[in-house]
Amino acid sequence: MKTLTITRPDDMHLHVRNDALLQAVLPYTARQFARAIIMPNLKPPVITVAQALAYREEILSAVPEGCDFTPLMTLYLTAATPINEIKLAAENEHIHAFKLYPAGATTHSDAGVADIKAAYPLFAAMEQYGIPILLHGEVTDPECDIFDREKEFIERYLTGMVNNFPALKIVFEHATTQEAVDFVAAARENIAATITPQHLLYNRNAILAGGIRPHYYCLPVLKREQHRLALMKAAMSGNPKFFLGTDSAPHLTHLKENACGCAGCFSAPVALELYAEAFESANALDKLEAFASHFGADFYGLPRNSGSITLQKQSHTVPQFCGTTDISITPLKANETLAWQVNTSDE
Ligand code: NCD
Ligand code: ZN
Ligand code: ZN
Fold this sequence. Notes:
TIM Barrel, binds zinc ion
C-alpha cells in the first residue's frame, strides 16, 4: 500500500469552542496534530491572559488519553485591550499571538476592532514586545461585495500595517485570493499566511452550483477558480510564508442547515487527508511535510515536532455526522470518498 510519513504537523488556525462542543471536537485534532493555534472567538471572547490560561486547561481536559497535544493560545484583540495585557501575553509561554477580528466580519466578532487605524498604538506594543498579530482580513463595509472584502482589506488596512510596523509579525489568516498570496509573497519575511483545505480544494461553485450547500460556506467565502489555483500554487511553492491552518470551525448541523446558516467548515476529522488530496492532485505530495509540519513552527519560533504521522492511500467514506449523540456536526466532505487516511495508531 502506498504510504506517506511526515513529521507530526501543527494546525496554525483552529476553532475548538468550549464546553460540550469542545469535548466533542478536540479529539479529532489531537489525533492528527501535535499543536494548534487556538482561536479566541468564544462567547464571551478570550481577552485576558488569565482567561486564555483557564481556556487552555479546559482544552487539555478534552485531550484523549495517550494523545500528546499542546494548545497554543491566542488573545482576542479589542479596542480596549490594555498595553499591559499585551506585555503580559508576550511574556507568557503559553500565549503565542493576538487575533484581530474586524468587528462584525465573522462568527463571534462583535467584540472585535471597529476602527483598525485607531488600534495602531496596540500594534506598536505588539511590535515592541514581539508578539504576532493574526488577521481575519476582510473589510466589513456593507457596501463592499462579499467576494471583494479580502482584496479591499489588503488595500485599505494591510498595506498600512505592514509599512508602519516593520518588525510586527503578521499572519494573514485563511488567505482566499490571488491578491492575498501575491501580497504575502512580495512582503518582507515576517508576513505569512495560512491556507485552509477548503480553499485549496473548492471554488465558489461548491456552495452554489446545483443547490445551496451550507457545509461549504465559510468566511472568507470560497472564491473563483482563478483564486483557488493561486492558493494551490502558493501552498505547494515551498515558500515558508505559506503554511497549514485548517480554520476548522464547528457549528451544529442544524445551525448550518438553516435559513441563516453559520459560517465555518468543520474539517478536523479529515484535515490532513484533505490536504493530501489537494497536494496529490498537483503532484506535490513531496511538498506537504514542510507546509504542514515545518513552516508554521518556524514562523512562530517554535521547535519542529518530533515524531511522525503516516497517511495511507486507502479509500474511505467520510462519516455523515461527527460528535456525540447530543452534538451532531457535519464534517467537510461528509458521505464522500477520500483517497488518503491517517493511520492513528502511528506516533
Ligand atoms: C469561523 C468560526 O466559525 O469561528 N468561521 C469561518 O467561517 N471561518 C470564524 C473565522 O475564522 O472567521
Ligand atoms: Zn476568520
Ligand atoms: Zn477561523
